[in-house]
Design goal:
Blueprint lengths: L2 E5 L4 E5 L2 H25 L3 H6 L4 H11 L6 H4 L39
Antiparallel strand pairs: 1-2
Helix pairs in contact: 1-3
Length: 116
């Protein structure tokens, strides 16, 4: 079940996917990447031109079904995964970028500094 967490890349609270949802959506994201690479190779176009063709629609549709949030950029879904984040910052409560993060990307407080 998705969980609303702060995304440090998007700078907003956003539905993050659990591992069961991720396992269902990841193949669609990978397929979109393969389609983009193939399209670029076949048509000799830029990455931006290939992306404009609309690959990733299935991943966006599935993300909406899971979360109720209408994401417009399939690339954003790659980092909307709960397991990629660390625990909450002890100062601001926002998730750390990773489980090994030593400082909060949002407020700059060092891990454990709020305990002092």
């Amino acid at each position: 079940m998705p969980k609303i967490l702060y995304c440090w890349r998007c700078k907003m609270d956003i539905p993050m996917l659990d591992e069961i949802e991720w396992a269902k959506i990841e193949p669609h994201l990978k397929n979109a990447m393969q389609q983009i690479m193939h399209y670029r190779e076949e048509h000799k176009v830029s990455l931006a031109d290939a992306r404009a063709y609309g690959y990733g629609r299935e991943a966006l549709k599935l993300y909406f079904e899971f979360t109720g949030y209408r994401e417009t950029n399939p690339d954003a879904i790659w980092h909307h995964r709960i397991s990629l984040l660390g625990g909450p910052c002890q100062a601001c409560g926002k998730p750390l970028r990773t489980a090994k993060a030593k400082l909060c990307a949002e407020c700059g407080v060092s891990r454990g500094a709020a305990d002092v």
